[in-house]
Amino acid sequence: QVQLVESGGGLVQAGGSLRLSCAASGGTLSSYAMGWFRQAPGKEREFVGRIGWSAGITRYADSVKGRFTISRDNAKNTVYLQMNSLKPEDTAVYYCGAGILGFNFGPQNMAFWGKGTLVTVSS
């Protein structure tokens, strides 16, 4: 099975940038859309962005559109989330997930999850 490991989280000031990485192992990603979700304390896990592994087509939540960019490196089996113009409300645990192509992409439909990486944005 595919295993996902996130990295790159940390503390950053508002307006700053951070890049998260999600390294996949144990299988090919060609049949998946890879995405990022986040969960703040006391809130539901929410969609951040996704990318189709083969075609590279991306989609984003309205809350991050224009600030976050998702990309992938096929050779490294790694997906990235570049986060710019960070706001305090972006503070959350960020999770990498893999959804099977052809299925609805959402928090409840992921085939695989990473363990998460904490992003804290200070004022």
Describe this structure in words.
The protein is an all-beta fold and 123 residues long. The chain contains no helices and 11 strands. The protein has strands spanning 3-7, 10-13, 18-25, 32-39, 46-52, 58-60, 68-73, 78-83, 92-100, 112-113, 117-122. Strands 2, 4, 5, 6, 9, 10 and 11 form a 7-stranded mixed beta sheet that branches. The chain has a 4-stranded antiparallel beta sheet with strand order 1-3-8-7, with no helix packed on it. β7 (68-73) and β8 (78-83) form a beta hairpin. The termini are far apart.
SS field, number of helical segments: 0
Radius of gyration: 13 Å
Percent helix: under 10%
Strand element count: 11
Class computed from helices, strands and strand pairing: mainly beta
Largest sheet properties: 7 strands, mixed
Overall shape: it is globular
Mean pLDDT: 94
Secondary-structure element pattern, one letter each: EEEEEEEEEEE
Distance between the termini: 40 Å
β-strand percent reads: over 45%
Give start-end ranges of low-pLDDT stretches.
none
